Amino acid sequence: MCFSATASFGSATLLLVGGALCTTHAIKNDKTYLLLAITPLLFALQQASEGVVWIGYNENFTLLTTTASIFYLFFALFFWLTWIPIVAFSLETKKWKKVFFITLIVIGFVFGLYLWAPILLETGPRHLLKTSVCGHSLCYITSDYSLFAITAGHIIYSLLGFLFLLSSNRIFRKFWALVMLLGVIVYFTQRETWVSTWCFFAALSTLWIYFLLINDYKAKMKKQDS
After folding, report:
1. pTM above 0.85, yes or no
2. Which residues of 48-79 are buried (b: 16+ CB within 10 A; e: fewer)?
3. Residue 97 to residues 47, 103, 112, 125, 173: CA-CA distances in angstroms?
4. Residue 147 in contact with residue 158, Cβ under 8 Å?
5. pLDDT tens digits, residue range 29-65?
6. Per-residue confidence (pLDDT) for residue 206, from 0 to 100
7. Does residue 184 have a pLDDT over 70?
8. How far is CA 65 from CA 41, 44, 128, 181, in A?
9. Do residues 23 and 212 touch, judged by C-beta distance below 8 A?
10. Residue 217, number of CB atoms within 10 A of its CB
């Protein structure tokens, strides 16, 4: 999490449990939701990596801090932009929306690579990575980023996120609407640490997936019995 190593590892553990429950439920009852169900497990990996960032930062271990930050930003800047439309595509039933989500997968991959590759390769005007503590949270803003570039990146990132709400699947829409609502709230309250703080709240929101799946399954069973 964005507040301490203990909180990061604690949230990762919680997400592992929640992800295991979601995955088990999907495998037993409806494999259609498998990609959505394993999403908490992937968020657990990201949150654990931020715990490592905290350890490196607190111990003044620059190499560990930088390496863990790059891994954390792999998820934040690249992976989610590709994974979420893949999940939406896997749940989509309308043909034109399937094509739409394939397009978003490609766009997310290219834009995510644009954001993350310079940090990984340490090349170009956007390569510098400076992890620091802003208030009580981690921030990953480089000195080379202009305010315009940061704002433009946030806008494009958010617009892509809102497009995922066009999914026809009710469970996915409910889950992702919560993620985007939290993203908007965090942006206007903790903009400097947006990357870290939003990822934390988005991670915890994946626990809701389990209850959405359970309620959907119960509704289907009740419908069959009536």
Report:
1. yes
2. bbbbbbbbbbeeeeeeebbebbbbbbbbbbbb
3. 31, 10, 21, 37, 14
4. no
5. 999 999 999 999 999 999 999 899 999 988 888 889 8
6. 84
7. yes
8. 22, 18, 13, 30
9. no
10. 16
Contact predicate 143/130, CB 8 Å: yes
pLDDT score, position 146: 47
Q: Which residues contact 95 (CB under 8 A, 6 or more apart)?
A: none
Sign of CA dihedral 201, 122, 124, 147: positive
Q: Which residue has the higher pLDDT, 97 or 153?
A: 97
The CA distance from 81 to 95, in Å, is 21
Domains of the chain: 5-225 (1.20.1070)
Q: What amino acid occupies position 122?
A: E
pLDDT in tens, 117-176: 888 887 554 555 677 777 677 777 654 554 445 566 667 877 888 899 999 999 999 999
DSSP letters spanning the chain = --S-HHHHHHHHHHHHHHHHHHHHHHHHH-GGGHHHHTHHHHHHHHHHHHHHHHHHHHTT-HHHHHHHHHHHHIIIIIIHHHHHHHHHHHH--SHHHHHHHHHHHHHHHHHHHHHHHHHHHT-STT-----EEETTEEE---TT--HHHHHHHHHHHHHHHHHGGG-S-HHHHHHHHHHHHHHHHHHHH-GGGHHHHHHHHHHHHTTHHHHHHHHHHHHHHHHHH-
